[in-house]
Amino acid sequence: MTNITPTKRGFTIVETLVAVTILMIAVVGPLTIVNQALRAAKDANNQMIASNLAQETMELVKNQKDQNTTAGVTWLNGISSPATPCTQTDPKSNLASLACDMQFGTSPDSYQYITCGGSGLNNCQLFKTTTGNTSTSYTHAGPPYVQTPFTRYYYLNPVTGDPTMLYQVLVRVVVSWSSGSGYTNQVQLQDFMTSAPQ
After folding, report:
1. What DSSP designation does 4 have?
2. Is 54 in a helix, a strand, or coil?
3. How far apart are CA 165 and CA 143, in angstroms?
């Protein structure tokens, strides 16, 4: 009887496991880097949107003040009212007792002052509306619009020497959003506003 010895040798289980491990290390490393880059791009996009939303509200508040000055009415009319003051009296607190926002109305040139907030500022949640392929705006109207991770509000701080806000206030706009990692981001924009035209 003749013994036949194989001339070709196959891979052992150990060699296969080593090859799979090396392959997984080579694939997982770049995928992790791509995942982190995508997360950073999304965070940068959200920060840009939040900055634009804060700037939009600041411009609307200033525009309302200018319209009031031109019309000869109280300079904070439509920005804050005695019945629903959008003020933060404690500068150490991060929340106003009642926050406000400006949002666009039914036509592109109209906007309105709304109150939102209270406990947790849940009513300040923004929803996205899309018209056509290019126009996107944000509103507090809620469904049927698409909910966004953003909340937006503003409040007025009395300035030292003018506690009744007759001549000057500090307007603070806050836009916050939650990221996928569970932490909250925030963009704050503030500016002084006076009753005299600038």
Report:
1. P
2. helix
3. 36
Please state, in angstroms and rounded to a whole number, the distance separating the CA atoms of residues 66 and 193. Answer: 10
75 inside domain: yes
Domain span holding position 35: 31-194
pLDDT at 38 over 70: yes
> Does residue 17 form part of some domain?
no
Number of other residues whose CB lies within 10 A of the CB of residue 97: 15
Rounded to whole angstroms, what are the CA distances from 170 to 70, 114, 186? 21, 19, 18
Model pLDDT for residues 81-135, shown as the tens digit of each residue:
766 667 765 545 555 456 788 776 655 566 777 777 655 445 688 888 877 666 7
In a domain, 159, yes or no: yes
Angle at CA of residue 98, ends 175 and 56, nearest 5°: 35
Tokens of 177: 């959003």
CB 173 within 8 A of CB 60: no
Joined together, the tokens standing for residue 94 give 């991060």
